[in-house]
Design a protein that fits this description.
The protein is of the alpha/beta class. Helix content is about 50%, strand content about 10%. Bound molecules: iron/sulfur cluster and Broken Fe4S4 cluster (MSK).
């Protein structure tokens, strides 16, 4: 029978909805990742988890033991070389995933500019800002003309061979100097991934620090290249997120509607589905099938994309994908790329649900394949929906956990944070910086990344609660953000319930939650820009490494999370994970956990216990506050009516609006 770690003993919301479902007969036969993990009955291989299993040539595989002469590779490779190569290949794979996603978004952007998709250029201000950055003339030109030239220049960044990526110029000047000094400025996005794979081929780069240098460069090609391009062009095309209310968790599925869940990462498909559900023909077909309409619900990061921009509800995160299907209430799960477990096809066996793959890159045995054609996006989306509607009448035994949905406020792009704290008419990070300097906000912490079946599922919540209690503002992305949403931390009311006095005061005045949902996993690039804006605003040092800011992806599962961690560290932000596959090499561990600081002003950290992890994040923030000379206990200032009115004038625009709710 399916189970979920951490839910038997706690009364949390995730546990409640999942336990409720698992107590139903129809879910009892469903086997989940938890079951498979238990059935495997063996602990992880020490060489694999320590990073010292090498299988990159056919003289191996070689398992290396650090410091044991007889246990180096057949080729003579040492533990540090092998562990560095493996770590670097994880960064390359994660970057490749973001890159291929980003390339599709740029191609979709170009097609939109040419009028070949049902979408349009929505955020013209951002279009102009990006155009200026890329040297595209805007004066007297039509938005589509500008977008086309911008899109083509953006596409060229992938295959560029010389020079440096355009968006590196957005970073603080000192950051750019550090990257230049260390020789890690990416030249072209694809080039860095290819070079990383080449250098980690048998018999090429065999000096761990040099391998890690290219891993740094590759990760920057992700954060300041692929991911940032994807986020910005997606915003221009589909709209930059603004705060909106929505709902999350299994209870967003509807009894009376055709439930279609969208799972994966690229929002081109999901946005097309959002348009197509409103189509007259689709509405009529749904009615004819006996449904009130089509209920779209997100899963994983596709879920985050349409949650942030449209307020479309999220049915589940990575860890819940099998549970969503176990309800028996989903007519189709539409998937594209990344983080889709092969088991989803197994879970729906014997049910009326179809898994519909839509991308030629990603097929699953047992799934139905309907290729999503971006130049015929609307009709592709309609075809997918028609397929789902045809399943509605076949819906058999099912169970949707009642009242198991939570309100959240989402949509905190870096621009929103600007306006939210800076006021409606003057976008600025000044008030955020001032509140950090005066101590109301101790610092900022990013909680990002995946979820993991090996650990209790309240890890994100535990870390966030500890941070918030200590006046640290939390910015969250990816499945971690959804996990915080399910635990109630993405509601403005959570400030009064969980936050320390200073943070609560700021949140309550502005009307924002103490944990801000900033987007999907590619949207971690928004955090880079937010950090850059904080530096630019002044008073907190002149590069990212001086800011009281820190990150974690505690339950990382995907290689993308390591690429993200690496680009944060290389950009000057300290990052702590629960574990990293580097323990098999003392030298590499020392370099990653300490030595990188000398080069980039930040390094990685590792801590398994979530409370201690949060405390280490707070300690890292305090260290920065100390260095900035702002770590003194601030005299508490009681706000008079005039001060309160001034702050209330800057109340969060739109936080009270209800969009996309049921
Ligand atoms: Fe073994 Fe060296 Fe081949 Fe790796 S590259 S499998 S360590 S022989
Ligand atoms: S989906 S990469 S499990 S965040 Fe982006 Fe979630 Fe991690 Fe996939």
């Amino acid at each position: 029978m399916a189970k979920m770690k951490g839910c038997e003993s706690c009364n949390d919301i995730t546990g409640a909805s999942t336990l409720d479902l698992l107590n139903q007969d129809l879910a009892k036969q469903v086997r989940t990742a938890y079951d498979r993990l238990e059935d495997r009955g063996m602990s992880a291989c020490l060489f694999g988890s320590g990073g010292t299993c090498c299988r990159i040539c056919n003289m191996g595989p070689c398992q290396i033991i650090d410091g044991v002469e007889s246990m180096i590779g057949v080729c003579g490779a040492t533990a540090s070389t092998v562990a560095a190569r493996n770590f670097a290949r994880i960064v390359a794979a994660g970057t490749a995933a973001h890159t291929d996603h980003a390339r599709e978004m740029v191609r979709g952007f170009i097609a939109t500019a040419k009028g070949e998709t049902p979408h349009e250029i929505k955020d013209v201000d951002k279009l102009h800002r990006m155009a200026r950055l890329f040297g595209v003339e805007t004066e007297g030109r039509d938005k589509n003309e500008i977008a086309l030239e911008l899109g083509e220049k953006a596409l060229a960044e992938f295959g560029q061979q010389e020079g440096t990526l355009t968006m590196l110029k957005r970073a603080p000047e000192k950051q750019q100097e550090i990257w230049k000094r260390e020789g890690v400025e990416p030249r072209g996005i694809d080039r860095e991934v290819v070079e990383m794979m080449h250098r980690t081929h048998m018999g090429v780069d065999q000096e761990y620090k040099n391998i890690l240098k290219q891993a740094a460069r590759t990760s920057l090609a992700d954060g300041w290249g692929a991911s940032m391009l994807s986020t910005e062009l997606t915003d221009i095309m589909f709209g930059t997120p603004v705060p909106k209310r929505a709902i999350v968790d299994l209870g967003v599925l509807r009894e009376d509607m055709v439930n279609v869940t969208v799972h994966g990462h690229e929002p081109l498909l999901a946005e097309s589905l959002c348009l197509a559900v409103e189509d007259e023909e689709i509405r009529a077909l749904a009615k004819k099938a006996g449904a009130k309409g089509v209920n779209l619900a997100g899963v994983c990061c596709t879920g985050n994309e349409i949650l942030m921009r449209r307020g479309v509800p999220v049915a589940g995160s990575f860890i819940q994908q099998e549970m969503v299907l176990a309800t028996g209430a989903v007519e189709a799960m539409v998937v594209d790329v990344q983080c889709i477990m092969q088991s989803v096809a197994e879970v729906v066996k014997g049910k009326h649900t179809d898994i519909i793959t839509t991308n030629y890159r990603a097929k699953i045995p047992g799934a139905v394949h309907i290729q999503f054609e971006e130049d015929d996006a609307y009709n592709s989306a309609k075809e997918i929906l028609k397929h789902a509607i045809a399943n509605f009448k076949k819906r058999g035994e099912h169970y949707i956990p009642k009242d198991k949905k939570l309100d959240v406020v989402v949509g905190f792009s870096h621009e929103t944070i600007n306006y939210m704290l800076g006021g409606r008419f003057r976008a600025s990070y000044r008030p955020l910086n001032d509140n950090i300097i005066n101590g109301r906000i101790r610092g900022v912490a990013a909680i990002v990344g995946c979820e993991h079946y090996k650990y209790a599922d309240d890890v994100h919540f535990t870390i966030a609660r500890e941070l918030i209690r200590n006046n640290v503002l939390v910015l969250a992305t990816g499945c971690a953000a959804q996990a915080l949403g399910r635990r109630g931390l993405l509601r403005p009311e959570a400030a009064a319930e969980y936050a320390g006095e200073g943070l609560a005061e700021v949140c309550e005045t502005v009307g924002m939650p103490p944990a801000l949902h900033v987007g999907s996993c590619v949207d971690n690039s928004r955090l880079l820009i937010a950090l850059t804006e904080m530096v630019r605003e002044g008073g907190l040092g002149d590069d990212i490494s001086q800011l009281p800011a820190v990150g974690t992806a505690p339950l990382w599962m995907s290689e993308k999370a390591v690429a993200i961690g690496q680009y944060f560290v290389t950009s000057g932000a300290h990052v702590i994970f629960q574990n990293l596959p580097i323990t098999g090499s003392k030298d590499l561990s020392k370099f990653i956990l300490e030595g990188m600081k000398e080069l980039y002003g930040a390094c990685w950290g590792v801590e398994e216990d979530p409370v201690k992890l949060a405390q280490k994040m707070i300690a890292a923030i305090d260290e920065k506050r100390e260095a900035l000379g702002i770590n003194k206990k601030q005299e508490r200032i009681l706000m008079d009516m005039q001060m309160r009115r001034e702050l209330e004038g800057k109340a969060l625009p739109g936080a009270g609006c209800t969009q996309g709710g049921h």
